[in-house]
Amino acid sequence: MNRVQRLTVDDGLDAERALLDEAFCATRDSGLLFWQPLRQALVMPRRLSRLDGFAEAERACAELGWPVALRDTGGEPVPQSPAVLNVALVYAVPVADNEQTRIETAYQRLCQPLCDWLAALGLEPGLGEVEGAFCDGRYNVNLGGRKLVGTAQRWRRRPSDGRYVVLAHGAILMDNQREPMVDVVNVFYQRCGLGMRCRAQAHVALEERHERPWLQVEALAGQFQRHLLAEGVVLDA
Known about the structure:
Blueprint: E1 5-7, H1 9-24, E2 30-37, E3 41-45, H2 54-63, E4 68-71, E5 78-80, E6 84-93, H3 99-120, E7 125-127, E8 141-143, E9 146-157, E10 164-173, H4 178-191, H5 217-230
Parallel strand pairs: 1-2, 3-4
Antiparallel strand pairs: 2-6, 3-5, 6-10, 7-8, 8-9, 9-10
Helix pairs in contact: 2-4, 3-5
GO molecular function, one term: ligase activity
Domain BPL/LPL catalytic: 26-225
Protein name: Lipoate--protein ligase family protein
């Protein structure tokens, strides 16, 4: 069975929403999705569509071959392309969990399997911000101080039992497309009159550190299964 679903960016985002909706409606308590974009796009929070220069920036990105797609989570623009493996983890948490605990736990449940997977490949991963990376955050998964995986969360509280459900998302740069990715993000910032700029050297692709990275996806799925089962989270089929 092919573990990775190949989807358009819009369909991939819809698949993630559907997974979260199923948990919200209590038809499932957990799920894990791997997907790879069929074509490239620049994905960003809906709030950025309200910027004064957004229409001009959207046209400029499309002319470079990066149409804009809008997502539900926050953060900054993130390039999506066939070079990226997306990991979406969904699960419900106990009612008693406080906000800070559940947010930290969700990042740990997403990042620890990723870090252990990379360590099993003979690499030395870490977590933290990387100056000059697009959509930077303190739960980046890094190699050698360069960003490999970006992470995000989206939360909902389901009315049936009051439990919170989370979609924890990671985007792994598998193939080296750093230069054009950074270029399009910087074009978007420039056309919107924003001062932020990114650097290609702030990022790293897994293929730069390990040959044939796509053959390692099944091992990554196994890491998630083992980690979550140890914490009492049984992934639904």
